Amino acid sequence: MILARATSLRPAPLHGKSRGVRLLSLAGLVVALAALCMLSVAIGTREVAWSDIAAALNGQVDSVGQAAVAVRIPRTVLAVLAGAALGLAGAIMQGVTRNPLADPGILGVNMGASLAVVVGIVWFGIASAHAYIFTAIVGAGLAAAFVYVIGSLGRGGATPLKLALAGAATSVAFSSLVIAVVLPRSDIAGGIRSWQVGGVGGATFDGILNGLPFLAAGFVISLLSARKLNSLALGDDLAAGLGENVAAARAVSSFGAILLCGATTAICGPIGFVGLVVPHLCRLLVGVDHRWLLPFSALGGACLLVAADVVGRIVARPSEIDVGIVTAFVGAPVFIWMIRRQRVHDL
How many domains does the chain have? Predict the structure, then answer.
């Protein structure tokens, strides 16, 4: 009886999207990402000729233009990886919590990673890239657990509204603690404040390689969690009736998202709203099946962050606007719209 009911309640694709339409949409996202990467390499604060771009892509740095392009290449790679990680982590968190407002920034996970890194630098003197990443992952995990426990208190358990409120309050508290920890250290305050804005400027392949094993592990764990998230979407009782270990499914999926958030925050700083906006847009394309939603969210997040980085270079020439500010301008209105379109008791 339970199995029959569970089978009938399996999420159906939105708008009856066929496999062919989904594959076509996926190919379109790949093409869009490739085009955005080319724009990211070609556009910057300095105008560069196409000949210099071609030469720089072949490893030449004989002119100022070629050197400028050579700097943009690792920046573009980092934007792709960070955007994919945040988009995928947002989709995972929404699936684990069944919360349409879940996002690494809104749930306080990014700020937990930031606080851990700042405390590690100021109080314990950590200096290596791997130490930053380990510390950020631990901080992200503790913050996620803290928000979930606080949001679970009281009647009704961990409702979407309670989780969003607990996450927002935690983010504000952690942000204040970061300021309090950094304030006495004027020698490093400027660098930490710049890192806290969130950006991909100054990226190097060495820095990317330091975080790549953690990101790769996070991507693999998260993508392999798709079937578990489909089961969790049916509700805990039905998922258990289907033979799913609900606690283990949540723990494994969350661990993948925490790896992605922690590593990305350690390298780029806290970047918000990517994990909120992208999964919602991707659901319009592919529905609620996580086997499709997760790869689409990764590609969509990469597209959004690369596009935001390009916009940040254009609108403030000859200066730049960090990508974290651009995503906030895009994500904040979407967040407000999502709140307004649903009645409070439905959240």
Answer: 1
